[in-house]
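Data availability excerpt. The first of two example chains:
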Amino acid sequence: MQSRTGEFKRKLLAYITSIIISVLLLGPPLWMIMTAFKRGKDVFAIPPVILFLPTLENFINVVTRTNLLPIVYNTVLVTVLTTILTQAFGTMAAYSISRFKTGGKFSMYSTLFLRVMPPVVLGLPMFILFNKLGIYDTILGLTLAYIAFLMPNTIWLMIAFFNEIPLAIEECARVDGASRMEVFMKITLPLAKSGIIVTGIYNIMGAWNHFFYALILSTDNAKVLSVQASEYVGEYVVRWGEVSAIATLLILPPIVLVFILQNYIEGGLKLGAIKG
């Protein structure tokens, strides 16, 4: 009887803890989405309004008062280019380090150099460099900055996935006459598919939502949604409705993407716990 009571208490504590964590994690984004559909008087109402008549006024203001289409185009283009290039070069670098120990430990750990440094430290040097190279406020410049920011984590994540793939599989293919490139393209990459998808989602989210480099390295031609959202924050007033509306537009695509690819994400997370 006491054991059942103890088990019930543990389960109850686990459920309560899970509910508290869920509220803490989901509360802010849900409140932001609610704010996006509120009128001005409801946004600033005290006490806060929970039940209200939804409106699309904030979304309409965001779309009509700014030239939003080029900004969305820039955001999508930079995200796609960054993800493809980071994933391609990061995957090849990770495979080289995993299989051939390229560069030794120095090369392996030096990949984290850009990642561990705060972006604010690199902002001014990048601003000066990109100005001299003529790529300031361009899609190319912003893409290069994002690649530099996301590449270290991509390499380290993919190293872990490649390390879990048994080397014997590749050796058997080599004995059967397959070239090193054929082994990589036709055997290793398919086996690492879940890892590639997981790191790809990480890169998509990193490029889609990144703010600092976009703020420092662009003005008009390469402006993205995250920077546009900041323009609704003034010195004396914050237009919370518009900020929440554009922030909602920013978070919805990654959420949809995660739901679509959740099976691959689950498989990729399990891969690191399975020995070949």
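And the second chain:
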Amino acid sequence: MQLDTLENYLDNNLHTYLDLLRQMVAINSFTANPEGVNRLGAFTAELFASLGFQAEYVQSVNPRYGRHLVLTRQGAQAALLPSGAPAYPLGMLSHLDTVFPPEEELRNDFVWRPEGRRIYGPGTVDIKGGTVMMYMVLDALRQFAPQVFEKGTWILLLDASEEALSVDFTRLCLQRLPENTLACLVFEGGTNSSDIFPLVVARKGRAAYRVKVEGKSAHAGNFHANGANAILQMAHTIQKIAALTDYENQITFNVGTVKGGSVVNRVPHYAEAHVEMRAFSPEVFDAGVAAMLALDGTSDVASADGYRCKVSVELGETTAPWPPNPGTQHLYDLWEQAANLVGLRLAQEQRGGLSDGNLLWGHYPTLDGLGPAGNNAHCSERAPDGSKEQEYVYVGSFVPKALLNTLAIMKLVEGEFR
């Protein structure tokens, strides 16, 4: 294969790929807008049908969300690669939903907006640009490596509710991806600094907590001393939670919401807070969970007659960390070899946000951040002074990233069937 011919093909068709992205961005696919999510799913299925993919829709377990999309292209049944080995399946992941309600997009005039080297719009980098990247790669393989394309089994999985990190999608992936799946490639948006393209090799895990305080109410004027102030106790507890953050060990605790009390002339008898914890290391993560749960039953505030506030800590949803591991490292090494062929520089990135890769790396070799580069994901606001910028994607990142992904996938397949 002539690399310049492949690159020219991607360059010459970039306007077509970007027009596909423009049509996707025009469809609001907020997680809680199932009609929009399903409309984007139907558009995506029609797009990949041109490459021979069959569509399957699976309704999210949560009825407030839309349908997951599974696109499959089976390899030729009797055909073998040149070595005589059967073609292994390969999984590619994206998602259909974004975090922007329709009214927010309208209020902030958050629409498709090309401007210089950037294109602004909802989902341009997270993650509709990633879905277009998947299409670019498969289109390139069909044109320039038809034997690999025709004989491989390709399984594309698009989550309808990734921004809510629905566990039912993980179960769907495990059902549709065979145990011998060669790799699980996640097309979340990438980042780049000058000429360096980072790929995601690890992600923090997340734990959510609900902290409740039961106090004792009393008249705030006549019998203040008889009350045990739940909000005051919560303030003590919040300080303890904040003290658990340890940047050196890359674990953070964020008290995201607090509520309590009813009226100002009553000593509050109840307070509640919601907390999230994130950490890279599984050991640090587990220690953080233990430290939070150790606050259960603690008390600092008491009434004059001896009633003590009661703190309870409930562990909610948890998503384990995706730590550095041999399977991911093997894939990164292949991508680095491909990068060397085309003069790109890669870097390993450990990212604090979650993706479906958090839930799949323990089952299949997984690599993330394979989408085009951009910034400001989840942001719809902009300010005239530039202090706020909307989500955008770098136009110039599509062709280099597609070239990289195409060559790396070929090296991955050739390595298995050598």
